[in-house]
Amino acid sequence: MRKLLLLLLFVSLPFALTACGDDKEETPIESTPKAWTWVDVAGTECGNGEQTGIGVNPDEGSTDLYIYLQGGGACWDEQTCFTLRSAANITTGYKAAQFQTDGTKDAYMFNRTKGTNPFRDMSYVFVPYCTGDVHGGDAVQTYGTQQVHHKGASNMAAVLPKLVATFPGVKRVFLGGSSAGAFGAQLNYERVAAAFPDAEVHVLADSGQMVTPAGTLLNTWLTHWGVKIPAACTNCATDFTRFPVYLADTYPKSRFALLAWSRDNVLSTFFGYSAANFETQTLSLLSSSYDGKANAKYFLKRGTQHTFLGSLDTITSTTGVTLESWVQQWVDGSATWSNVLEP
């Protein structure tokens, strides 16, 4: 009998150890309330292959979480990555030292002392950008003689379990981003919503209008970066304007907000359009993908500028709507939240 028991123990032991490893719980992040802390995250990679992390700034009394994805261009070949250097932090990486000197964390949207800041009562998470793939990729490419780790999506997958463990009582998640981060917020919506199944998840895309780029650029981006478009997002891999429609229609209880400059001089260049043509493409996107949607709205200003959130407290439309009040309506789910279109 004793030999039989020992044999059973010997046979079952490896399986027991495996099960314990699989059930290991993520350790919550230790940080000072209402102060920024940098945290290295295992499994993350910058374009140079080095590990990166996130910045966290918790408000222990809040059940709202603001996750902000940093912008910084994009790249998809040797010229854009290494000659033009059109994507931030590809070769340098992004670690604690970069975070300490990054002015983004001092922006108005992270200032809790401002009584009209829509994000003032939330916990904050800052996701840096160093992958060149609008936070959407999972691939390693060789351009010329150098490698680029396009790992934006897999970085989000590595970060989210730590956020779930750190903010277990979250009821509302506000997923935002500027420029590359705006596209990343939209591309990562389903990943974040799956991580926080008991919370509302809403998106604010600052200068991230999903127009279809010129020529074969969209296919190049998706292929080189390894972006996975949801199978249910019909024709989204060839028609980028279908993606915001897919999100709004599939998730009617979530709010999808877009901030857009009509002739954005940064996006028009990346997308291969003249300023006038980009404006035409943008207005067409708003008409086809946002108009008539109860849960997808836009704030459009005429001009060639790029991004809004850095001036959240100072921008007003020519129709008299302040950006700050519009974003507050998005946060609140106000019945008065509506499209802003400058004539």
From TrEMBL:
Keywords, ordered alphabetically: Signal
Keyword Ribosomal protein among record annotations: no
InterPro entries tied to this protein: PAE/NOTUM
N-terminal signal peptide: 1-21
PROSITE patterns: PROKAR_LIPOPROTEIN
Annotated protein name in UniProt: Pectinacetylesterase
